[in-house]
């Protein structure tokens, strides 16, 4: 099992119930709850609140082992996995669940000068830039654009970052950085399409845009980013936006492992069949963000979200159980339970099955409840719930220690 994300852990949990030996490999020894990374980036939660030790997850299963290492390649002939360090591992069945990376769409300067929010390191780096820039401005005076944050991408991640940063800025200027003029900072959200949250119903996207503007976010729909420098960004219209931080939330791309593996690809992801096996390889499965599976009448690829990865992980566990029992494989069927995005306090949107659409406080409460339930570990659930309750009651934020140099 390569990858300790949503899909990998779901597969391990299913395989723990059958007579197999499971070896889970990941470059980190913890699972990251990625939907809340933006809250770490904005000091709403501490990193430990959304990280869960992999070994703690597997200690209840005697057939589970963990190895922390970087996968460097796979030998399909000898059925072995090579690593950056240490000996190879052989397998009878291999499950690839290594996640995805950031897609910069070839934008000049984006990889070097923009910050994504896909890993814990990314979130901590954004948090440190935000806090450090405020401290520099308070000590030495604000330079042109230093406190401006440009967010590229108006999907759920971009909207959640923009709304949370806007509320953070409002609170910080009122309570902690009273020497700074709030007018010296800005949050600019750029979206290539003509509306925000294109995966949602247009009315929910319009609600999100209105809620962001109410919070002081400058929303630029129908606008692209041409080039990004260390201290500014050039938009497709030619406008130059001085900024101290560019957050890239415009798309998810293939992970580094996907690019080095000699496996069939579809739109940059590993191509799999309806049984979740890699095309042309009966002993290799791929799930989650790194896998490309077409579904529905329009043959869209499964979205790179947690619910599909979890469902695929469970299905893979049952598929391997069927193979060992000599039973036929069963095609995977995705059950779409809906999508959600939060904008800020008492403001969120949710699009559920059967055409149910929620917005405002009710959607916000539903979003809070779902994320508490999905978190791994009782301590993490309690910590996040306490943090959110305290923040709501006191309207304060968490730690703003500058962890970077």
Can you characterise this structure?
Helices cover 33% and strands 24% of the residues. It has 405 residues and is α/β, with parallel strands linked by helices. The chain has 2 domains: 6-27 and 69-102 and 253-324, FAD/NAD(P)-binding domain, CATH 3.50.50.60; 110-250 and 339-394, FAD/NAD(P)-binding domain, CATH 3.50.50.100. The strands form 10 sheets. It has a 5-stranded parallel beta sheet with strand order 10-17-11-12-13. A 3-stranded antiparallel beta sheet has the order 5-6-7, with no helix packed on it. A 3-stranded antiparallel beta sheet has the order 14-15-16, with no helix packed on it. Helix 1 (6-15) runs parallel beside helix 9 (306-324) and helix 6 (156-175) packs parallel to helix 7 (202-214).
- In what range is the share of β-strand residues? 15-25%
- How far apart, in Å, are the first and last alpha carbons? 36 Å
The radius of gyration is 22 Å
* Assembly category: single chain
Mean pLDDT score? 93
CATH class of the largest domain: Alpha Beta
> Strand count, sense and closure of the main sheet?
5 strands, parallel
Low-confidence stretches: none
The total domain count is: 2
The number of E-state strands comes to 27
Q: What's the helical proportion of residues?
A: 25-40%
Overall shape: it is globular
At the fold tier of CATH, the topology name of the largest domain is FAD/NAD(P)-binding domain
Helix/strand/pairing category: alpha/beta
């Amino acid at each position: 099992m390569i990858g300790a994300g949503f899909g990998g852990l779901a597969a391990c949990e299913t395989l723990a119930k059958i007579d197999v030996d499971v070896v889970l490999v990941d470059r980190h020894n913890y699972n990251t709850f990625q939907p809340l990374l933006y809250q770490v980036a904005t000091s709403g939660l501490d990193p430990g609140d959304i990280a869960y030790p992999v070994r703690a997850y597997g200690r209840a299963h005697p057939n589970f082992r963990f190895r922390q290492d970087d996968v460097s390649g796979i030998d399909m002939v000898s059925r072995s996995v090579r690593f950056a360090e240490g000996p190879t591992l052989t397998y009878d069945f291999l499950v690839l669940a290594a996640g995805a990376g950031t897609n910069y769409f070839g934008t000049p300067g984006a990889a070097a000068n923009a910050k994504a929010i896909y890993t814990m390191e990314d979130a901590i780096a954004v948090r440190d830039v935000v806090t450090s820039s405020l401290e520099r401005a308070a000590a030495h005076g604000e330079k042109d654009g230093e406190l401006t944050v440009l967010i590229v991408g108006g999907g759920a991640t971009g909207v959640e970052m923009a709304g949370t940063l806007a509320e953070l800025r409002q609170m910080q200027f009122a309570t902690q950085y009273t020497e700074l003029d709030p007018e010296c900072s800005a949050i600019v959200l750029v979206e290539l399409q003509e509306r925000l949250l294109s995966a949602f119903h247009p009315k929910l996207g319009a609600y999100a845009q209105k809620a962001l503007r109410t919070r002081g976010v400058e929303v630029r729909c129908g606008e692209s980013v041409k080039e990004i420098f260390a201290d500014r960004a050039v938009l497709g219209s030619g406008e130059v936006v001085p900024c101290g931080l560019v957050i890239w939330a415009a798309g998810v791309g293939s992970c580094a492992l996907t690019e080095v593996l000699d496996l069939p690809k579809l739109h940059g992801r590993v191509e799999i069949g309806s049984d979740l096996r890699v095309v042309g390889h009966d002993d290799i499965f791929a799930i989650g963000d790194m896998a490309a599976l077409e579904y529905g009448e329009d043959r869209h690829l499964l979205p790179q979200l947690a619910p599909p990865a979890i469902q695929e992980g469970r299905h893979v566990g049952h598929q391997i159980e069927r193979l060992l029992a000599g039973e036929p494989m069963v095609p995977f069927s995705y059950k779409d339970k809906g999508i959600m995005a939060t904008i800020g306090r008492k403001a969120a949107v949710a699009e559920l099955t059967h055409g149910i659409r929620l917005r405002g406080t009710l959607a916000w409460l539903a979003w809070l409840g779902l994320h508490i339930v999905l978190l791994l570990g009782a301590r993490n659930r309690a910590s996040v719930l306490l943090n959110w309750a305290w923040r709501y009651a006191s309207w304060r934020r968490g730690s703003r220690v500058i962890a970077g140099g």
